Amino acid sequence: MEKTIFEKNGGEFERQGDYLIPSLALPPEKEQPIGLFGRRHLDYLKQYHKVTYTNLLTSGRLNTYLADIDRQAQERFERLIEGMKQAQGITERLKEENALEWVQHLNNVRACAREIVNEEIIYA
């Protein structure tokens, strides 16, 4: 029996009952931790960019891509928080004098920074 194009390119088949099924496996990928921003971007890709998600998954680059997005988003988030804290005068002195007000301001800054990161990186 003549070899198929798949077999000529190094592919193998495995027998499942009466059928020959191609032995397919994803390329190995280094596992990297993915944080909150990376998981949000993953959900976004799965829902709205299925072709990009499938291409990254089948090429073995999905985990690396998501880890990079997560790192970029986290760095941007932290820079935004520091900049907004300085611009709004949220200091350690305010924390000592009125902790509740400091928490309110800091929560507001975090929420604003999270929205900016989502808009610029996660859902773009």
Explain how this protein is built.
By secondary structure, the chain is mostly helical. The chain has one domain (35-122). It contains 6 helices and 2 strands. The protein has helices at 5-8, 36-48, 50-59, 62-88, 92-97, 99-122, and strands spanning 13-16, 19-22. The chain has a two-stranded antiparallel sheet. α2 (36-48) packs across α4 (62-88) and α4 (62-88) packs across α6 (99-122). The longest helix is centred in the middle third of the chain and has 27 residues, at 62-88. It is rod-shaped and about 85 Å long. 13% of the residues are buried.
Main sheet record: 2 strands, antiparallel
- Give the count of structural domains: 1
Q: How widely separated are the two ends? A: 51 Å
The chain-level structural class is: mainly alpha
The number of distinct helices, counting runs of at least 4 residues, comes to 6
List unreliable stretches of 5+ residues.
none
Task: Give me the oligomer status.
Answer: single chain
Mean pLDDT: 92
- What is the ordering of alpha helices and beta strands? HEEHHHHH
Q: Give the helix level as a range of percent.
A: 55-70%
Number of strands: 2
Beta-strand residue percentage: 5-15%
Alpha-carbon Rg, integer? 24 Å
Strand order of the largest sheet: 1-2
Shape summary:
rod-shaped
List the helices and strands and how they pair.
Layout: H1 5-8, E1 13-16, E2 19-22, H2 36-48, H3 50-59, H4 62-88, H5 92-97, H6 99-122
Antiparallel strand pairs: 1-2
Helix pairs in contact: 2-3, 2-4, 4-6
Write a concise synopsis of the structure shown:
The chain is mainly α and 124 residues long. The protein is built from six helices and two strands.
